[in-house]
Amino acid sequence: MSELLKKVNISIEEIPGLGTFVVVPKGLEQVIVDTTSISGVDPKGENTLYRGYTIEDLGMNADFYEAAYLISYGALPTEEEYKEYRKKIDYWRTRVPEKLFDALKILPQTHPMYYGAYGVTLLGQIYAPEWRIDKDTLYDHQIRLIAQLPVIFAAAYNLAHHGTYLRPDGELSHAHDVLRMITMREPSELEVRAFESSLVLYMDHGFNASTFTVRVVGSTLSDMYSAVAAGIAALKGPLHGGANEEAMKMFLEVKKIASEKGVPMEELIVEYIKDKLAKKERIMGFGHRIYKIKDPRTDVAIEFVRKLKDGETWYKVLKNAERVMWEVKKIPSNIDLYTAILYYQLGIPIPMYTPVFASSRVVGWTSHYIEQVLNNKLIRPVEKYIGPSGLKYQPMSHRRK
User: Side by side, which strands form the sheet with 39-41?
Assistant: First the structure.
């Protein structure tokens, strides 16, 4: 057993006066901190599952409401359950408080993830000043957050950049309405389905950084709105949700250089990535803490990339980028590489890529919050202090630089 612990960089340490502690790897890598029945890698390590269904199966076949219901309640909905759930989502999407829209009008042009954290915090002040931990309350507020977070992002972004925004339309499907509000235009049926599929793919993914953040906040019994605001803050980081934004910036740079040189993008991307790797620069959209060989979600995303504008060209670019990274670094691509191009094809502004991610992941965040608080234990690890000790306070006149 001791050899196995050493292999995964885990040790047992006795701290005088405090007791015995387990020392785990930095970043909690390869550490299981709790159990969940919502999503994760199956026992064989072959697939990533939402409540027992593979993500790629749902990404190809389920719509937003079905996948959100499954993640929230643990089973795919019956026809009656589906209708009732869809009715609630569509109702609450059109019921964003007017005072919140007024507040969004004063926000400056900044990264739109700030808009989401700001708006969700305001929603908490409006909806949940006295928070209760009971199932009816939890599921009621979950639906409000799922329905209203994308409206906040779309309205705030377009107000800051265009001075206007589109109101939600409860007669449209959730994915259709959200894409319409973001792009300020009427999308095609294919575009709606491509967008909806990406929302399903992003809905949840085990104890990722933002979800774990939500569970930590939830474990203090803070309200769901505060926990989701914290999740948005965690997702904003380029090592988590911001990767697809950076990946698209890379692709646009390759597109520009290829145009100037008069060479195909799919050829230049190979040279471009090799040059970046030689300079020890990070390539966003590659690597994953869980997937070491392949991110299965990319198989779904690529099908829609090929069907949209310039699909075959972008397909070749993606596959060549994927191939060269594997040949040189043995690092697989992840879903962010693919959705970067997918969202570009849909006309979504690059700064809104991560907010779209959040507008989907809010389903997982709120489900994990509920799972956490209904079987709660405060998440509070112990630090190992390595700083100085025994120092005594000195008056300022006695201090040296």
Answer: 39-41, 48-50, 53-54
Fold of 53-239+354-373: Citrate Synthase; domain 1 (1.10.580)
Q: pLDDT (tens digit, 9 = 90+) per residue, 34-73?
A: 999 999 987 766 678 999 999 999 999 999 999 999 999 9
* Catalytic, out of 63, 90, 177, 336: 336
Is the CATH code 1.10.230.10 the one for domain 243-345?
yes
- Residue of 195, 85, 105, 194 whose CA lies nearest to 147: 85
- pLDDT tens for each residue of 120-153: 999 999 998 889 999 999 999 999 999 999 999 9
Which one is catalytic: 141, 174, 288, 368?
A: 288
Residue 243 near residue 331, CB atoms below 8 Å: no
Cα–Cα distance for residue pair 36/124, rounded to 1 Å: 26
Q: Are 13 and 21 in contact (CB under 8 A)?
A: yes
More confident residue, 324 or 203: 203
Residue indicated by tokens 């630089």: 401
- Examine the residue annotation and report whether 162 is marked as an active-site residue of this protein: no
By the 8 A CB rule, do 181 and 338 touch? Answer: no
- Checking if the pLDDT of 289 tops 60, the result is no
